[in-house]
Design a protein that fits this description.
9 strands, 3-stranded mixed β-sheet, HesB-like_dom_sf, ATAP, Hypothetical Protein Aq_1857, Chain: A, 49% strand, alpha/beta, 2 iron, 2 sulfur cluster binding, Iron-sulfur cluster assembly protein, 2 helices, Fe-S_cluster_asmbl/transfer, globular, 107 residues
């Protein structure tokens, strides 16, 4: 089981943690939501729990609940800037379809 980070995503995670002044990484997960089934969740990770998996690349840490790994395994997390818009992008080989609004996905 693995989660990959691009250098751009790792840089953004480090910048956000530095700006915040605390935290050990980014917590990535999924929740049941939307018309397709799942939506991604992002939060700061301040601690690693017993049921967490930890992935480190390019000097940044991503924490994922083991229960979410079935949906997120093999995903690459990227950070992209396009004009005035900037956001994390989830490149998930497990996502088979996305809803029209882009809010949720199905596996």
């Amino acid at each position: 089981m693995s989660i990959q980070l691009t250098e751009s995503a790792a840089r953004r995670i480090r910048q956000q943690l530095e700006k915040r002044g605390s935290g050990l990484g980014l917590r990535v997960g999924v929740k049941k939501s939307g018309c397709s089934g799942y939506a991604y969740t992002l939060d700061y990770a301040d601690a690693v729990e017993a049921d967490d998996a930890v992935f480190e690349q390019h000097g940044a840490t991503v924490v994922v609940r083991r229960a979410d790994l079935a949906v997120l395994d093999g995903m690459t997390l990227d950070f992209q800037k396009q004009g005035l818009n900037e956001a994390f992008k989830f490149i998930n080989p497990n996502a088979k379809a996305y809803c029209g609004c882009g809010e949720s996905f199905t596996t």
